[in-house]
């Protein structure tokens, strides 16, 4: 499932491919998609993308009007953007934006499994917390000011998937974060986080909010390449998720948690631990990771 880094890379991809490009006509939806129609048609408009956690917003701006439209996307299990010629339109292209040129090109939202969604005239979901990458101080304050909430009675690995507090974190990030910080996944979240309620120095404020940003942006956004699904760099970056020698167990929500060593006192009772295994076939990882964040840094993410 695409996580915060992938959605940010998707926004960079759109801006890189569509910068200076003029689009025209109506936005077209596939017949099979159950998502809403996008009632927008314009002889000439541009597209700019912005990401926030697990959402991407496309802003359509007419050249001769100040009336813009925002479309907010959630990628589900397999969503991503492609920019192709009309003749090379992807099979599972469910929302399409056509350029004003001959031959025309098409920006497509592609979603094989169709769990993704879009909302015309949409806004960021109110039940999602600040972005883990680009709203760091607000994100940190949101977590630490709510440690008394019942949600933090749960294991840290499960709370990390709660988008109300950790907007952008998903299954592979939680495994990598906890492994690199040497934190057992099934320890009470409040116990793990309450020690962070200290005042941040100016230097800490400057550095800690940029860990994931450094992983992604300073690497040039090379990981998001829907034209060439190469997972080599990503697999090299992984230290825990789907890695040889790691254990796995289903958490209380049925999601697979990868870890090493003791799972912690709150591990599900009666749930058999998967023994360390040989490295998974690359195709298996590709099925679970639709997009490719190209990380090469070993700097851990610290809430």
Automatic annotation (TrEMBL):
Transmembrane segments annotated in the record for this chain? none
Q: Region Disordered: start and end of each range? A: 259-283
Which one GO biological process term can you cite for this protein? Answer: base-excision repair
Top-level taxon of origin: Eukaryota
Listed InterPro entries? Endonuclease-VIII_DNA-bd (IPR015371), FPG_cat (IPR012319), FPG_N (IPR035937), Ribosomal_uS13-like_H2TH (IPR010979)
The entry lists its GO molecular-function terms as: DNA N-glycosylase activity; DNA-(apurinic or apyrimidinic site) endonuclease activity; nucleic acid binding; zinc ion binding
Q: Which GO terms describe its cellular component?
A: nucleus
Q: Where is the Formamidopyrimidine-DNA glycosylase catalytic domain?
A: 2-116
Coiled coil regions, renumbered to chain: none
One of the Pfam families matching this protein, by short name:
Fapy_DNA_glyco
Q: Which CDD domains match?
A: MeNeil1_N
**Identification of the protein by name:** Nei-like DNA glycosylase 1
Lineage, uppermost ranks: Eukaryota, Metazoa, Chordata, Craniata, Vertebrata
């Amino acid at each position: 499932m695409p996580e915060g880094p992938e959605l940010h890379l998707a926004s960079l991809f759109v801006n890189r491919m569509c910068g200076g490009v003029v689009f025209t006509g109506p936005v077209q939806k596939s017949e099979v998609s159950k998502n809403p129609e996008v009632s927008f048609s314009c002889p000439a408009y541009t597209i700019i993308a912005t990401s926030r956690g697990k959402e991407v917003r496309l802003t359509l701006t007419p050249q001769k009007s100040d009336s813009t439209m925002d479309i907010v996307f959630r990628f589900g299990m397999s969503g991503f953007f492609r920019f192709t010629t009309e003749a090379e339109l992807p099979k599972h292209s469910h929302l399409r934006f056509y350029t004003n040129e001959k031959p025309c090109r098409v920006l497509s939202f592609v979603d094989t499994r169709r769990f993704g969604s879009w909302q015309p005239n949409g806004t960021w979901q109110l039940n999602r917390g600040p972005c883990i990458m680009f709203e760091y101080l607000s994100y940190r304050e949101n977590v630490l000011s709510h440690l008394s909430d019942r949600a933090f009675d749960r294991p840290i690995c499960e709370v990390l998937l709660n988008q109300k507090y950790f907007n952008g974190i998903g299954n592979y990030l939680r495994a990598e974060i906890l492994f690199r910080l040497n934190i057992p996944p099934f320890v009470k979240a409040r116990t793990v986080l309450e020690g962070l309620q200290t005042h941040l120095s100016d230097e800490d404020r400057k550095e800690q909010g940029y860990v994931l940003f450094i992983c992604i942006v300073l690497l040039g956004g090379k990981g998001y390449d829907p034209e060439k699904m190469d997972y080599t760099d990503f697999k090299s970056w992984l230290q825990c998720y789907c890695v040889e020698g790691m254990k796995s167990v289903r958490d209380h929500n049925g999601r697979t948690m990868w870890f090493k060593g003791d799972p912690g006192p709150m591990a599900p009772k009666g749930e058999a631990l998967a023994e360390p295994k040989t490295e998974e076939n690359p195709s298996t990882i590709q099925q679970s990771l639709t997009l490719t964040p190209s990380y090469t840094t070993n700097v851990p993410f610290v809430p």
